Amino acid sequence: MASYAWVLEVRPGYEEEYKKRHDEIWPEMLETLRKAGIANYNIFRHGLTLFGYFETDDLEAAKAHLADCPVNKKWGEWMGPIMRIETDPTTSFPYLLPLQFQMK
Q1: Which of 15, 49, 52, 100 is the most exposed place for a label (fewest CB within 10 A)?
Q2: pTM tops 0.85, yes or no
């Protein structure tokens, strides 16, 4: 399974709300991620910076599934006001970080 990472930001003052929303993540959103083929998804926060890590066997299929999913759209609309999200205009997906090192 290949690994991927992204960096986004929480808007100032919304750190606790961001954590609360993920502590109470909708079961249908978790199911959406699983159906997209995403596994081992983790999000870490340092100040306002979010670092996300996930694994998938097929990134393009995962992105396509999420792009077409009404649950993912609703989640994005709900989270949008409390986050600064920078997406790649060619993929409409957060910029993925290039791997610099991997210890095996």
Answers
A1: 100
A2: yes
Residue 63's identity, in one-letter code, is K
E strands present in 1-104:
2-10, 39-46, 49-56, 83-84, 87-88, 93-94
Residues 6+ apart with CB under 8 A from 42: 52, 53, 54
What are 35-48's pLDDT values in tens digits? 999 999 999 999 99
* CA-to-CA separations, 49 to 32, 63, 80, 83, in angstroms, rounded: 24, 22, 15, 10
How does strand 83-84 pair with strand 2-10? antiparallel
Q: What does the pLDDT look like over 48-85, one tens digit per residue?
A: 999 999 999 999 999 999 999 999 999 999 999 999 99
| Residue 10: closest CA among 59, 67, 68, 81 | 81
